[in-house]
Amino acid sequence: MSCFFGGGLFTIMVASKALEGQGENQESAICTVAIRLMTQILNWEFRGKLAVLGKSRASTLSSSPASRKSSEQLQLWHDLLVSPAKVTWILNFYEHIHQKGNAWLDLPLSVVVRQLIVLMCSLNGSIFPTDGAGTQEQHLQRLLNCIISWIDPPEYVISAVLAGTSESEMLDGCRALLAIATLCSPSSFDQLLLSFRQTGTLSLLSSLTCGIIKASCVRESEEPSWTYEALEVLLETWTVILQPADLSQKVPLPPSGIEAASAVFQTFVEFEMKLSESSALDEDDADDMAAFSDEAREDRLSAVALIARTVPSVSLSLLTMLVSKCFSEIRQSLGSETTTRCLEQLHWLTILSGHVLADPGEGETPTVPESILAVSAEPATHPAVSLSFALIDVAQQSLDATFRTTLSPRMMEAIVWFFGRWVETYLMPDHAGRGPSSTPSGHEGQEVSVGVLFDGRNALNAAFGKDGGGPAVLEILVRVALTSLTAWRGEQVLQEYVSSRLLPALVRRRNVCVQLLSMGSWQELATVFARQDQMLLSLSDSVQRALSGCLCRSAQGLANADAANQYVKDLLMPMAASLAEFSGRKDLATFSQQPNVIHQVSCVLERLRGAARETIPRTQKAIFEVGVSIMKPLLVFMEIYKNQPSVVYLLLKYVVVWVDAEVVFLEPKDTTTVFNFCVQLLSVYSAHNIGKVSVSTSRSLQNEAQTEKYKDLRALLQLLTNLSSKDLFDFALHADENPDVAQVVYLGLNIITPLISADLLKYPKLCRQYFTLLMHMLEVYPEKVAKISPEGFSQILGTLEFGLRQQDVEVVNMTLSALGALGVFQYQALCKGDDGLGTQSRTSGGDDVLSHFLKLLMHFLLFEDYSNDLVEPAADALLPLILCNTALFEKLKQELVQRHQDVVSQERVSTAFHSLSKGIEITSTIDRSIRRKFRSNLFVFLNDLRGFLRTR
Amino acid sequence: MSDEEHHFDNKADAGASKTYPQQAGTIRKNAYIVIKQRPCKVVEVSTSKTGKHGHAKCHFVGIDIFTGKKLEDIVPSSHNCDVPEVTRTDYQLIDISEDGFVSLLTENGDTKDDLRLPTDDQLNAQISSGFHDGKDLVVTVMSALGEEQICALKDIGPK
User: Fold this and answer.
1) A743/A722 Cα distance (integer angstroms)
2) Which of A286, A491, A593 sits opposite B56 (nearest CB)?
3) Where among B67, B84, B101 does a domain terminate?
4) For the Translation initiation factor 5A C-terminal domain, which residue ranges apply (chain B) (predicted)?
5) B119: nearest CA in chain A?
6) Which residues of chain B neighbour A693 with C-beta distances below 8 Å?
């Protein structure tokens, strides 16, 4: 602190000198360093032990038990940081620099002084006396008074920057505004400037934002431009004002703010419309592909949408007007270039409208924005209704085959995207139990009378509710979806939007599903889908899955489970039947290899997988039956398509998803069916892939083949993992009623382990997945290991040894856990006098396998490199192994002791061994305290011995 | 040599070289496609648009399944592409003649003697050494567009 003070004093002395020079002299350098020090100090984390000062974003800290000392310090800091004299001094100092003109603006000295001032803007917390924020306000006013000269008047400042003045001062001005806005309520933010000027801060912010937006129009080509950065900061300022982090503190804007916001919105729209017009014919579409996911753009649109929502009547009417205008221009189709320009504008307007009208509903149910709800109007004239209908009109016209040629895929993407978002918020809302007072800013809502709030809702309800215009709109949307899937051939982006945004939004809510199922258009879609019409077969695989999932999901709208199951069966059985028919053909061998047949089989598999993924309790039965009905065909296909890895992979993926979806619901009898099927599937797969060496002429094809194998095996392991989870659901049931999960999984492991080569285990995902499964199995079912075949057992042990030598710490860790589990099992069996691993534990050489691992592990710990993180799991594995075979352990110890000639070293080794077993009481169970003791012993042991043994 | 070519033509007539039309947008990575009259495996697909408001087109990078050469093609995604019928047939290896031809046993007991050893050295070496060691070998023959080549080998255990 005294540094700060001293620094301050010192700075004063040097500063005057610095100002006299030409900018690059020693005094200014010293001054810069001094101020940088002050900045650093302000950047300290003050919320530590002292909890005295809240700084910038550290902001509001509660008053902690303030000791006398800290309150003294508080006063000191206060004098230092916010006393008018000190602040004014710094401000005056900068004022001098400012007057020196452009050449000085980017000097290190100027930069750090501005930085310091911005930091001072964000001072907050208990450094200010608790006098109703009066002092803080004065402090901010003082600062703002200085900062204002950096940004005001905006037109002048911006044109100066455009003319070549440095932009850094203006940018810092924007940052200071953001810092101040974070600390104030909207009205007090506005008041700050009113105390010494005619207009409020919000108007200044507004005209500054507008100025920047206009300027970015001029300087669009340069990247990265200062206008971009300034706009980011200013929009963030708006966001902070309009949507504080703590929603309960949200207060309405003062009237001047409303005007300011509306000005900003109009300028923004105007600018973007121009931009769209000029960029419509651009060829480069690389960055456009990711248009909607582009985060920066998304952020900007959300910020602008927030501004628009504060003035819903103005903004929505403006958008409606522009949408109608663009659309009518498109319909007149004035030559291709003009149309393209209008399309691009309409595209942009659609996206913005989506942001203004609705929030993204990911993970939660979005509601209509309050301010839009608060607009009271007749249903026909409500601005949100008008805008929605303007866009519904576009959607409806797109159904017309001749008009469609005028529209573009990109335009349709925007429409589909818009309705995907819109549907969740507006279409047939489900109001039950949701009153206006449950909104976050409850007390604000009550000031406006409740009746008014309901007015907006009534208007929306009448337009889009279940009893209002909802069904009609829904009908249009389903038609749009159907047309987008069928009439826009090959437009994958569009089709993906339909299947992953619009349709899921439609089937998400049950009341909408009820409506959907009663509609002709939805049934049409379902029929076209079920009869495997060529139109829908030409969709890409992810679209197939999503479409199928959505259709199945809509079954939740049916009144009872029987109807739902029947509906799903009607949907899927025709496809299952065609698979069965194919598999029964006499000429299958040649028939199946035709590319069109392969394509159809792949499509059906994708669809079934999509359906299985969307299994809900209501439709589980149907999905299961469909699965069972194609078990045989699938095995046939597995055989016949052994040389078509893509089909095999799809088939495996389907089974994985299906098992995952069904395993929770299965009765013992069904479980047996599923288990048998899986084992058969594994055997067929294994029979065709084991020992196969394929070589391709090209390296990349070779890699592809390797990747395919890898993906298959991952799917198989996933299948086994899914199967093994069956036990977790059925703990309640009697063990003998259920087929033995463990046996099935071990059998499965047995089948696929030989397929997993050391090369394949180099894929970290596969490797982890494999060892996770192995660990799980050995921990939960060690007793079953004793019963599997000797070859299988030695395979498992082989992989354990392999796992121990892996680089991946996690894999080694899992291997050790597995080994430990095995050791504990054997030890407990020994104590009880059981057979334990029995004959299994003898390898062909007559050596006990666990002893082998004991030796291996000791060697590993003492003589090899490993991460320190592994000592703990190694201890857990080592302890039971030692206990199983104390004689061997003793022998190992003797061997190590004998290696040394001199008595001192021998002594050292045996002492270390002694410390390892210190405090370990041997009982029949290995409980936690013993494990813990052993862990710390092992640490000591390794510390003592490892370095010693390795250097000798 | 002319005999061999003649045989290929025969195969083509028999229908083994058929191609099927499939919409470009549905052809995925790892699928087969005909580019410049050659059967290829697709190793890369990317889609783009002809201008902002244009239609989608697919850009395929394929690798000739026989020669390993890289080929590229751009097709509007709503158009059809030719997809070759690529089949793989397993035969038991009965003999390797001195001039590099192999003798294979077909399913119905005939022999097929028109194929050479593969050009790939590694596979070639494995076949030859495996055969001379007396192992029971099954080779997989890949055929497409009337062309054939041994592409894989499987050891089904010693004799």
Assistant:
1) 14
2) A491
3) B84
4) 85-154
5) A697
6) 123, 126, 152-155
- On whether residue B42 sits in a domain, the answer given is yes
- Cβ neighbour number for residue A927 with a 10 Å cutoff: 8
Using alpha carbons only, what angle is made at residue A768 by residues A764 and A772, rounded to the nearest 5 degrees? Answer: 175
Considering the domain architecture, whether residues B66 and B121 belong to the same structural domain is answered as no
What's the pLDDT at A700? 66
| Within a domain: B8 | no
Q: Looking at residue A367, what is its pLDDT?
A: 83
Give the C-alpha separation, A946 to A861, whole Å: 8
Q: Which residues of A touch B24 (CB under 8 A)?
A: 490
pLDDT of residue A281: 76
Distance CA A108, CA B143 (A): 72
Task: Point out which residues pair with B87 in neighbouring strands.
Answer: B143
Neighbouring residues of A750: CB distance < 8 A, sequence distance ≥ 6: A788, A789, A791, A792, A795
Chain B residue numbers with beta carbons less than 8 Å from the beta carbon of A289 are 48-49
SS3 assignment, position A492? helix
Judging contacts by C-beta atoms under 8 Å, the chain B residues touching residue A493 are 47, 56
Other CB atoms within 10 A of residue A865 CB: 6
User: Same domain, yes or no, for B96 and B71?
Assistant: no
B45 touches chain A (CB under 8 A): no
Q: Which of B33, B50, B84 lies at the terminal end of a domain, its last residue?
A: B84
Question: How many CB pairs (< 8 A) connect A and B?
Answer: 140
Do B58 and B94 have their domain in common?
no
In a domain, B14, yes or no: no
ipTM: 0.80
Q: Are residues B60 and B102 in the same domain?
A: no
Q: In terms of domains, do B27 and B60 share one? A: yes
A704:B154 CB<8 A: no
Please check the confidence at residue B54 and state whether its pLDDT lies above 80. yes
* CA A628 from centroid of its chain's CA atoms: 36
Could you give the angle at the alpha carbon of B23 between the alpha carbons of B17 and B29, nearest 5°?
80
Same domain, yes or no: B91 and B134:
yes
Decide if A285 and B51 are in contact by the 8 Å CB cutoff: yes
Shared domain check, B95 and B80: no
Give the residue, B9 or B37, on which the prediction is more confident: B37
End-to-end CA distance of chain A: 55
Which tokens go with A137? 């306000």
Nearest to A692 among B41, B78, B152 (CB): B152
Contact of A702 with chain B, judged by CB distance below 8 Å, is answered with no
Q: How near does any CA of chain B get to the CA of A582, in Å?
A: 18
CATH, residue B122: 2.40.50.140
The enclosing domain of B69 has a CATH number of 2.30.30.30
Q: What CA–CA distance (Å, rounded) separates A542 from A163?
A: 52
Q: How many helices (H) and strands (E) does chain B have?
A: 2, 11
Residue B112 domain boundaries:
86-155
Q: For the CA atoms of A232, A237, A241, A247, what is the dihedral angle to 10 degrees?
A: 60
How many structural domains compose chain B?
2
Closest-CA residue of chain B to A341: B53
Contact criterion met (CB < 8 Å) for A695 and B118:
yes
Residues in chain B: 159
CB of B103 within 8 Å of a chain A CB? The answer is: no
pLDDT along chain A (952 residues), means of 10: 48 55 64 79 59 40 46 69 76 80 76 83 73 75 82 83 81 88 81 78 87 75 71 88 71 79 90 83 55 70 89 90 90 77 90 90 79 81 90 91 86 92 86 43 39 64 84 92 89 90 90 90 90 83 92 89 91 91 88 88 92 90 91 91 86 91 84 86 82 59 76 85 72 56 79 77 84 85 76 80 82 87 83 68 59 84 80 85 82 83 82 79 75 85 79 66
Q: Within a domain: residue B6?
A: no
Position B5 pLDDT exceeds 50: no
Contact A695 B152 (CB under 8 A): yes
